[in-house]
Amino acid sequence: MLLSTPRPEKHSPLEDIQGLVVGTLLVAISVQFLHSADLITGQIAGLSLIGSYVSDWSFGAVFFVLNLPFYWLALRRIGWRFTLKTFAAVGLLSVFTELLPRLITIDALNPYAAGVLAGVSAGAGLLALFRHSASLGGVGIVALYLQDRFNFKAGWTQLIFDAGVFGLALILFSTEVVLPSLLGAVVLNIIIATNHRRDRYIAR
After folding, report:
1. Residue 202 lies in a domain
2. C-alpha span between 190 and 155 (Å, rounded)
3. Domain range spanning residue 158?
């Protein structure tokens, strides 16, 4: 006799709130690691860090603006719940990245250690967001859509985009900045590709 698989329970609003707060806080900590070692990362966050280094804009401001065009894809292809949660996560990350430098100061940090620590904390944060049907916008929206629609792993989509980001970084920064940054991005995307699977993360 075959036993039916129980339907997964939906997350409660309180569970979603704590998931968004914890996830974005972990990613904000990863940005703090990167800033302390003058490193960059991949995805839209990487473009935002590059933009903050070469302009007078803060990371939070650049990150928020660059994400705006991707909400259309999220709304059309994934749904309004995901879009609202993602918008909230992007807003939270923008706030946290503005606040953390006032609360935490890292005086000395090996760049390769910074890259790995940033990759691990960002990977854990993104997994928390994905688990609660949210992302940090940008490439994360495209990656989740491709994974749900075509079963193409989200981590691989992000890694492909990162290749373009780091190609730009090689033009603007020295290899002393790019290599540890690339290590952190690889760690991040391996964590996502290994741990984020649709059959494991099915609660909505």
Report:
1. no
2. 7
3. 14-195
Q: Which two tokens stand for residue 175?
A: 């290899």
Contacts with 84 (C-beta within 8 Å, 6 or more apart), sequence order: none
Nearest-10 Cα torsion for 18, 67, 27, 83 = 20
- pTM of model > 0.90: no
Token pair 């699977």: residue: 197
Do the beta carbons of residue 42 and residue 111 sit within 8 Å? no
Inside any domain, residue 126: yes
Domain contains 1: no
pLDDT per position as a tens digit, 106-131: 888 899 999 999 999 999 998 999 88
The tally of domains found in the chain comes to 1
One-character DSSP codes across 191-202: HHHHH--TTT--
Question: Are the CB atoms for 115 and 181 separated by under 8 Å?
Answer: yes
Q: pLDDT for 28-60, tens place per residue? A: 999 899 988 988 887 787 788 888 888 888 877
CB count within 10 Å of CB 182 equals: 23
Give the C-alpha separation, 161 to 188, whole Å.
13
For residue 47, tell me if it sits in a domain.
yes
**What is the C-alpha radius of gyration for the chain, rounded to an integer number of angstroms?**
17
